Amino acid sequence: MNRKKKVNQILKKRMKKTNSKLHKSNKPRYISKAERAKMEQEEALAAQNEAKTDAVVTEELDSEPKAAAE
Q1: Virtual torsion, Cα 25, 28, 31, 37, nearest 10 deg
Q2: How far is the C-alpha of 68 from the C-alpha of 60, rounded, in Å?
Q3: How far is CA 23 from CA 13, 20, 36, in A?
Q4: How far apart are CA 36 and CA 29, in angstroms?
Q5: Half-sphere exposure in the Cβ direction for 19 (13 Å, CA)
Q6: pLDDT the model gives residue 66
């Protein structure tokens, strides 16, 4: 009886391993606190650069009609 039980345990263990490898976790990847802070800084810089380019574009558009009117 013990031998039969042991064989069944081994087979069940193997099946569990193969099934666990097939099914991937839906949990998102862990991002450390330092990485999150770094990402926030990069986003802030990108937002500032966007704001600067938008301001330059609006200034150029505002200055063009004046030049055309003269």
Answers
A1: 180
A2: 12
A3: 16, 5, 28
A4: 12
A5: 6
A6: 55
